[in-house]
């Protein structure tokens, strides 16, 4: 025991001498996380991070057998689920974890919004988080096509068509995305490259920044807590207490993912046939459903503008506004209720929920 | 053609024959009105153009039609310049048919060339618009044969089309548009159309159903049928309304065709019962294995090898069903046994896959146990740290 | 008491961690082991040595989920065709006496190019490519 400790100490000092890690450790040691009735939301980002790690691990494993080409994409996924040992598990975990990740990203985002954690000094943390969310949706959109099954094929067709409706830049962007005028094997290669190379690289860089910001600035405290004197606050050290709690939750999430993957294995569906008529029930992934449903509802033409263009314009503007929330945040006297930002957030959630349900009912 | 005064005048006067088509095959080959009807197409004077002196023959009577067409169609010397391989025996064949013989006897109601091919809108038989295109043949025959009043004096039924349309052949041809399926003329002949006789029924069906015919002819039933002058296939399968066969057709139930002749106690009755049981044994094993296979597919397990085994079992089943026509249980048994073995192998393989799927869940149980253990341990650790 | 509880927790923690590592690593390591059939979409199948394949004979190959018939003609050429009859999906066979492909179920006949020439089959059999590389027969899909 003593010798082992000695060894660790020596290694530490060897490293410290070269990389000066003591200040970092010192910083970590003095980092505290407040405990209050909203603490639970602090964990959401961590869960999303954990699911991202699961995605990286399972994704790397899947790449070993997946073949991104029109002829064998579907077959290779079927091969993974039937012939490769534990392939079914890895694939199913990748799919489930992807969906849960998007879900937790949304939860994390809205909890940050409602606790007004995006305010100064965390404007950049919010914006980098928004970019991460957009990238996560990009992961979902590109990954959905990769098994090359019927539903994904047509959903991608519809999805890229929507991009094509944009004025001026729409058509070139659509062709750029598809790698040609239609969704073909070329699209599959592109989506594959975007999914496993382009997005992970950008995502990793921005994730690093996002985490760096969080570490540097510490956890945001709700308004009422900020006004309390320090002695009255309940604080726990970030390391190891908070981190261990994080791990605890991560393990529970892992259990849930495994359970879902085993008991509700992700379906493979039928192989895409580009010449077949579109099947019934083409649906994008659930997290695109509210947008999809909105676009369906907008009439063909609204005052000389194509309905679809209007819809895309709307979502683009809302997206930009959402990204820059910290800059136009409506501050009002705290006693004034309901607070305008809360109203906006609730309206957003209600809208998303109603349109998602509507999309699945229709 | 451009200087064809017959056409010029008839078009101008809007006096064209019924069903006239510009892309009629004769017109396309450069044969205009005068080619068949005679006369002088260069003259614009109707009296000169349509005078007997100019060779005008006018409209042939029904009885004259075969000879009228045969002028060219029976002469290979003329026909080969249009189609080197064309047959020229249609008229000769026609006079051997029931239609042709009755026409010669003066019956004005029977079909001649024009009745089926039309007169002025003739298209190649391969043209999908033609009245004699395979898909259109049943409809063409039905125009007369489906008319009960028209057929009354001949004492023949008029429900052949309806029967045919319900048959396995009719479904294949009319609904699935499979031109390989037989239309009326494939069994009855076309120009030489007659009802197939007793001796020829088996040959007619056996033209496509080769194995069934050979097994039947070599069987005891085949011999007995020949002696009794029974109509081979037709006795059990019917004629126009040949339905898709099923296993109920053999055996001793009410749906069986065997019990029409074989009563209990008769050796034939026992044979029917035995063969039926042999088939039932195989279909049961097969259906059971198929149900398991779809379960394997649904749960996303590997069904490739199961598929191969089931394919073999299915093949044995198809062959056993054909072997029914030997009416010999000893010939059917090896096939059904072979199939049962394959189906059972498939079933075992499928059950193994399903079991494997459950083992996976047990595996999850293990993993969950470890993770839960870790969760609990962490929970206590955190609590210990924080209460200290 | 506190010490022993602490020890117990540590034991649980260590055990759980080991178990967790095992249950995470075992599937991953198994996943990395290449399966017996190394390819997802069968593009080609090896069918033994050409020198050992006698003329006027045939063999049924498993081409992924599809059976394929490999035939060596009398003149020594190799032909590969889908082995499922286009009539009712029975498996066809090469008849060395007829020098044709025959389906036992309903007496369907195909020629050595896979064309349906008699009996009930409605369509020809699909063709596959055969290549001989260093005496090894390779049957592959025609792109």
Characterise the protein shown here.
The complex is a heterotrimer of chains A (362), B (388) and C (143). By secondary structure, chain A is mostly helical. Chain A has one domain (13-361): Cytochrome Bc1 Complex, Chain C (Up-down Bundle), CATH 1.20.810.10. Chain A is 69% helix and 3% strand. Chain A is built from 15 helices and four strands. Chain A has helices spanning 2-19, 22-29, 42-63, 73-82, 87-114, 123-145, 150-164, 170-178, 185-217, 223-226, 238-263, 289-297, 307-323, 325-328, 340-361; strands spanning 32-34, 235-237, 301-302, 305-306. The mean pLDDT of chain A is 88. Chain B has helices spanning 5-12, 25-28, 33-37, 46-49, 65-73, 76-79, 90-96, 98-104, 113-117, 137-145, 148-152, 160-166, 168-175, 184-188, 201-206, 210-218, 220-228, 234-237, 267-298, 304-323, 329-387. The termini of chain C are far apart. The mean pLDDT of chain C is 86. At the B-C interface, helix 16, helix 20 and helix 21 of B face helix 1 of C.
Q: How many domains, in number, for the residues of chain C? A: 2
Name the poorly predicted regions of chain A. none
Query: Could you tell me the radius of gyration of chain C in angstroms?
Result: 27 Å
Q: How many angstroms does the end-to-end distance of chain A come to?
A: 66 Å
Structural class of chain C: alpha+beta
Assembly context of the chains: heterotrimer
Tell me the CATH architecture of chain A. Answer: Up-down Bundle
Helix fraction of chain C, binned, reads 10-25%
The radius of gyration of chain A is 23 Å
Tag the structure with descriptive keywords.
heterotrimer, A: 362 residues, mainly alpha, Cytochrome Bc1 Complex, Chain C, two-stranded antiparallel sheet, two-stranded antiparallel ribbon, 69% helix, globular, B: 388 residues
Briefly say what this structure is.
The complex is a heterotrimer of chains A (362), B (388) and C (143). Chain B has 388 residues and is mainly alpha-helical.
List the helices and strands and how they pair.
The complex is a heterotrimer of chains A (362), B (388) and C (143).
Chain A: H1 2-19, H2 22-29, E1 32-34, H3 42-63, H4 73-82, H5 87-114, H6 123-145, H7 150-164, H8 170-178, H9 185-217, H10 223-226, E2 235-237, H11 238-263, H12 289-297, E3 301-302, E4 305-306, H13 307-323, H14 325-328, H15 340-361
Antiparallel strand pairs in A: 1-2, 3-4
Chain B: H1 5-12, H2 25-28, H3 33-37, H4 46-49, H5 65-73, H6 76-79, H7 90-96, H8 98-104, H9 113-117, H10 137-145, H11 148-152, H12 160-166, H13 168-175, H14 184-188, H15 201-206, H16 210-218, H17 220-228, H18 234-237, H19 267-298, H20 304-323, H21 329-387
Helix pairs in contact in B: 7-8, 12-13, 19-20, 19-21, 20-21
Chain C: H1 2-32, E1 44-49, E2 57-63, E3 66-72, E4 78-82, E5 93-95, E6 100-103, E7 108-110, E8 116-118, E9 127-133, E10 136-140
């Amino acid at each position: 025991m003593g010798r082992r400790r000695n060894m660790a100490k020596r290694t530490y000092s060897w490293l410290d001498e070269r990389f000066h890690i003591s200040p970092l450790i010192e910083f970590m040691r003095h980092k505290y996380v407040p405990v209050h009735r909203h603490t639970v939301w602090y964990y959401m980002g961590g869960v999303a991070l954990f699911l991202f790690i699961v995605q990286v691990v399972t994704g790397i494993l899947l790449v070993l057998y997946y073949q991104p080409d029109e002829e064998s994409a579907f077959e290779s996924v079927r091969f993974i689920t039937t012939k490769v040992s534990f392939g079914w598990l890895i694939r199913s975990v990748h799919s489930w974890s992807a969906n849960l990740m998007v879900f937790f990203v949304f939860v994390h985002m809205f909890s940050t919004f409602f606790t007004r954690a995006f305010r100064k000094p965390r404007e950049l943390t919010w914006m980098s988080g928004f970019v991460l969310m957009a990238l996560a949706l990009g992961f979902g959109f590109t990954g959905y096509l990769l098994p090359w099954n019927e539903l994904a094929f047509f959903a991608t067709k519809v999805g890229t068509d929507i991009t094509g409706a944009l004025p001026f830049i729409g058509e070139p962007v659509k062709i750029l995305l598809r790698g040609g005028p239609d969704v073909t094997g070329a699209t599959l290669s592109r989506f594959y490259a975007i999914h496993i190379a382009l997005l992970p690289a950008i995502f990793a860089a921005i994730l690093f920044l996002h985490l760096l910001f969080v570490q540097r600035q510490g956890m945001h405290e709700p308004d009422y807590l900020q006004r309390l004197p320090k002695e009255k606050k309940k604080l726990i050290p970030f390391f190891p207490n908070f981190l261990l709690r994080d791990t605890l939750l991560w393990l529970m999430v892992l259990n849930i993912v495994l359970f879902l993957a085993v008991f509700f294995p992700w379906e493979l569906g039928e192989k895409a046939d580009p010449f077949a008529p579109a099947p019934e029930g083409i649906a994008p992934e659930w997290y695109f459903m509210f947008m999809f449903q909105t676009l369906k509802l907008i009439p063909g033409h609204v005052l000389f503008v194509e309905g679809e263009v209007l819809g895309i314009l709307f979502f683009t503007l809302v997206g930009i506004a959402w990204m820059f929330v910290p800059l136009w945040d409506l501050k009002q006297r705290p006693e004034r209720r309901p607070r305008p930002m809360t109203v906006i957030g609730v309206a957003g959630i209600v809208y998303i929920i109603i349109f998602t349900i509507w999309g699945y009912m229709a | 053609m451009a200087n064809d005064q017959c056409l010029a005048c008839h078009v101008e006067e809007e006096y064209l024959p019924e069903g006239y088509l510009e892309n009629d095959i004769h017109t396309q080959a450069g044969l205009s009105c005068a080619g068949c009807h005679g006369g002088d197409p260069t003259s614009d004077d109707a009296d000169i153009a349509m005078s007997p002196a100019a060779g005008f023959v006018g409209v042939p009577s029904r009885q004259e039609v075969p000879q009228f067409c045969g002028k060219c169609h029976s002469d290979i010397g003329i026909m080969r310049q249009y189609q080197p391989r064309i047959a020229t025996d249609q008229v000769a064949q026609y006079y051997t048919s029931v239609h042709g013989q009755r026409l010669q006897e003066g019956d004005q109601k029977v079909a001649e060339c024009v009745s089926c091919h039309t007169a002025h809108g003739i298209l190649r038989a391969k043209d999908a618009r033609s009245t004699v295109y395979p898909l259109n043949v049943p409809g063409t025959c039905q125009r007369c044969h489906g008319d009960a009043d028209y057929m009354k004096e001949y004492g023949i039924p008029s429900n052949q089309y309806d029967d045919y349309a319900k048959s396995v052949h009719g479904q294949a041809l009319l609904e699935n548009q499979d031109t390989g399926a037989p239309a009326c003329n494939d069994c009855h002949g076309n120009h030489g159309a007659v009802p197939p006789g007793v001796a020829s029924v088996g040959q007619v069906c056996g033209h496509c159903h080769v194995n069934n015919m050979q097994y039947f002819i070599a069987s005891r039933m085949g011999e007995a049928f020949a002696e009794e002058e029974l109509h081979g296939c037709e006795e059990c399968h019917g004629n126009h309304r040949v339905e898709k066969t099923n296993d109920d057709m053999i055996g001793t139930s009410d749906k069986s065709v065997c019990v029409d002749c074989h009563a209990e106690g008769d050796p034939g009755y026992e044979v029917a019962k035995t063969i039926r049981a042999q088939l039932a044994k195989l279909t049961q094993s097969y259906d059971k294995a198929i149900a398991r296979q779809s379960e394997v597919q649904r749960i996303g397990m590997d069904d490739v090898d199961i598929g191969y085994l089931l394919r073999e079992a299915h093949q044995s089943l198809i062959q056993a069903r054909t072997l029914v026509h030997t009416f010999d249980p000893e010939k059917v048994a090896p096939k059904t046994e072979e199939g049962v073995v394959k189906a059972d192998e498939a079933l075992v393989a499928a059950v193994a896959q399903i079991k494997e799927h459950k083992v996976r869940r047990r595996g999850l149980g293990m993993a969950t146990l470890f993770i839960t253990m870790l969760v609990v341990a962490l929970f206590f650790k955190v609590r210990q740290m924080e209460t200290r | 008491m506190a010490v022993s509880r602490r020890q117990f927790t540590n034991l649980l923690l260590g055990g759980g961690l080991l178990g967790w590592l095992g249950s995470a690593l075992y599937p991953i390591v198994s996943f990395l082991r290449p399966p017996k059939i190394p390819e997802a979409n069968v593009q080609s199948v090896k069918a033994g040595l050409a020198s050992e394949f006698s003329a006027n004979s045939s063999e049924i190959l498993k081409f992924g989920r599809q059976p394929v018939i490999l035939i060596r003609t009398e003149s020594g050429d190799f032909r590969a065709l889908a082995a499922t009859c286009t009539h009712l999906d029975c498996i066809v066979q090469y008849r060395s006496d007829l020098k044709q492909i025959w389906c036992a179920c309903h007496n369907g006949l195909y020629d050595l190019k896979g064309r349906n020439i008699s009996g009930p089959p409605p369509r020809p059999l699909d063709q596959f490519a055969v290549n001989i590389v260093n005496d090894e027969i390779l049957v592959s899909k025609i792109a």
